[in-house]
Design goal:
two-stranded parallel ribbon; mainly alpha; single chain
Amino acid sequence: MPDRVRVEVDEDLSDLIPGFLTHKREDVVTIFGALERRDYAAIGSIAHKLKGEGGSYGFASMTTMGKSLEQAAAKGDGGAVTVLAEELLNYMDSLEIVFEPSSS
């Protein structure tokens, strides 16, 4: 089992996080399917969305991974896409989410 990655998330998002993570897992499945078709435009689109959403939900590492995935897709680098998609899955598997009180 990978080392745990503790992420503090605003408690106002507690109802949204499970669905968000489910959708991100589905995105990884879609990325692998697109990779088989060499559809780097689709991968880039998913990666761009991940880049924007990750930080919004409190997962800054997802934003970084999304940026790297987007760059790999733009280069048509299937090997890098594979490694990064697997890293994203491992990251999600290792999450320990702690909900923190809202600052407002």
